[in-house]
Design goal:
6-stranded mixed beta sheet, 5-stranded mixed beta sheet, 503 residues
């Protein structure tokens, strides 16, 4: 959970475990000079938000001279920008092992730990800086902000009740009123209709707001609908019927509208699956999630939604969705959204041949579809296990498994994919979770496909978005790519935790 999750940055270039010289005496003056030049090139790329290329240059510098703390510290910062939190932690720790007084490395490591929700570990690093520099106002501010988060979490745990009641069970819908001057769409007898959704999309396009009463009604109905499904949902696509799979949307509402304009609005004849990460980063996340949930209620057997790693409390607190909901509605509604997110299915299986999940495969070869279906999901994602890996894992080009570059989940190679498919009698897997320059990527001999549907991610990446079409009698994926469309002048991360502005 760090700043912009970027492009094809998830290459193996710059793996902290890479081979580098072991003896400082083996480094020539020419090596040192070339490494410095590479670092300067990398710094310029970073400044221009070309984080993937910056990582490559920092890595090249490290291969020439791995004994300079700043090289590891700078690459750690670039990894933070690309959500490779595991690599960021490793680089920051390496920098500190080379120079325990390199204070930026404490910040980098603290940032990575915060991104992973490990606020107490982050607080220790901020505390270390304040001890070295007790008069440093910037260090004190970071420590205080992190300390506030730790205290808030402790307070929320202390006041949490165990009476089994959810907010959705206690909200008095009838007490919520629609303002007399509201001129947007209305639910019919409390239900979503086709006219409602189409008018809602137009109202959102004009930056109008849906009344809190309607938001609550839709959320409560959606929670009930999702809670009646297994963690693995089976989808049957008959004959020549078209079916569309979309990846991350990340609050880019106007690009979501563009998908519908290109591919047609959802309907019983035009079914969709949206594969997680509907919210965060983009600043129109409320509009995205309410549109998608409305379609789910309208076409419950022809519109599908999977949980992504950003449909979680910590991510929403850090990356903007919680701030957006509080700004547009209330703190209470944040809790209601969390209840809905907790019930989102973890994966979908199309025609018993295609498994679709947000993240990827597992740390064990023994996982079956039945294991996924029986996974308990009404909770925040754990740090390990089937649920965690479905939301967080990534493919890698080399065989075998490796620790996750993100610090959560696992990286899996083509042999792992092959074994899983054979064990479960599947043709291929589709996942999302990573920005790709063309909006999609085919790996593992065509057996592992990534689709990402948020073009020009965070208004900086310049990547295309994509969606996949298949038909029931031909499960071969057809890719459609597209560029970003204009949106109102609200920057991505506008509602993100202000802590991000401190780095």
């Amino acid at each position: 959970m760090a700043d912009p999750n970027m492009g094809n940055e998830y290459s193996t270039e710059g793996d902290p475990n890479e081979e580098v010289p072991k003896d400082p005496l083996s480094i020539t003056e020419e090596d040192k000079k070339n490494a410095e030049e590479l670092k300067e090139e990398a710094n310029l790329l970073f400044k221009n938000e070309s984080y993937s290329k910056a990582i490559e240059k920092y890595s090249a510098a490290i291969r020439l001279n791995p004994f300079v703390a700043a090289y590891h510290g700078n690459r750690s910062f670039a990894y933070l920008r690309t959500e490779c939190f595991g690599y960021a932690l490793s680089d920051a720790s390496k920098a500190l092992s080379l120079d325990k007084n390199y204070l930026k490395a404490y910040y980098r490591r603290a940032s990575a730990n915060m991104a992973l929700g490990k606020f107490k570990l982050a607080l220790k690093d901020f505390e270390a800086v304040t001890k070295v520099r007790p008069s440093d106002k910037d260090a004190k501010m970071k420590f205080d902000e992190c300390n506030k988060i730790c205290k808030r979490i402790a307070f929320e745990k202390a006041i949490a009740t165990d009476d089994g009641k959810c907010l959705s069970d206690t909200i008095d819908i009838e007490s919520l009123v629609i303002e007399p001057n509201y001129d947007g769409p209305h639910l019919q007898d409390g239900k979503v209709t086709k006219d409602f959704v189409e008018n809602l999309m137009e109202a959102f396009k004009e930056q109008k707001k849906l009344p809190k009463k309607y938001v609550c009604q839709i959320l409560i109905q959606a929670k009930k609908l999702f809670s009646e499904q297994d963690s693995l949902v089976y989808i049957d696509v008959p004959g020549k019927s078209k079916f569309t799979i979309c990846g991350d949307i990340h609050g880019q509402y106007y690009d979501l509208l563009n998908i519908f304009q290109m591919n047609g609005n959802p309907s019983e004849e035009n079914p969709y699956l949206f594969n997680g990460d509907f919210v965060d980063r983009g600043s129109f996340s409320v509009e995205c999630i309410m549109t998608l949930l409305s379609y789910k209620l309208l076409y419950p057997k022809h519109f599908f939604m999977a949980r992504g790693n950003h449909e979680s409390l910590t991510m929403n607190q850090m990356y903007g969705f919680e701030g957006e909901v509080k700004s547009k509605y209330s703190t209470q509604l944040c809790e209601l959204f969390t209840e809905v997110f907790n019930w989102l299915p973890l994966a979908h299986c199309i025609n018993k041949k295609i498994l679709v999940m947000h993240g990827g495969l597992f740390s064990s070869d023994e996982v079956t579809l039945n294991d996924i279906a029986s996974t308990h999901r009404n909770k925040q994602p754990p740090e390990s296990g089937i649920m965690c890996e479905l939301l967080w894992s990534d493919p890698q080009p080399q065989a075998g498994r490796a620790p996750s570059k993100r610090g959560v989940g696992v990286q899996f190679g083509p042999d792992i994919t092959k074994k899983f498919l054979e064990r479960n009698n599947l043709d291929y897997v589709v996942r999302s979770h990573e920005v790709k320059n063309e909006g999609y990527e085919v790996m593992h001999d065509g057996k592992c496909i990534t689709v990402f549907s948020a073009p020009n991610y965070c208004d900086t990446m310049g990547n295309k978005g994509a969606y996949i079409n298949i038909t029931g009698d031909n499960l071969t994926p057809k890719f459609t790519t597209y560029s970003a469309v204009p949106h109102p002048n609200v920057k991505p991360m506008a509602y993100a935790n202000p802590f991000f502005g401190l780095f």
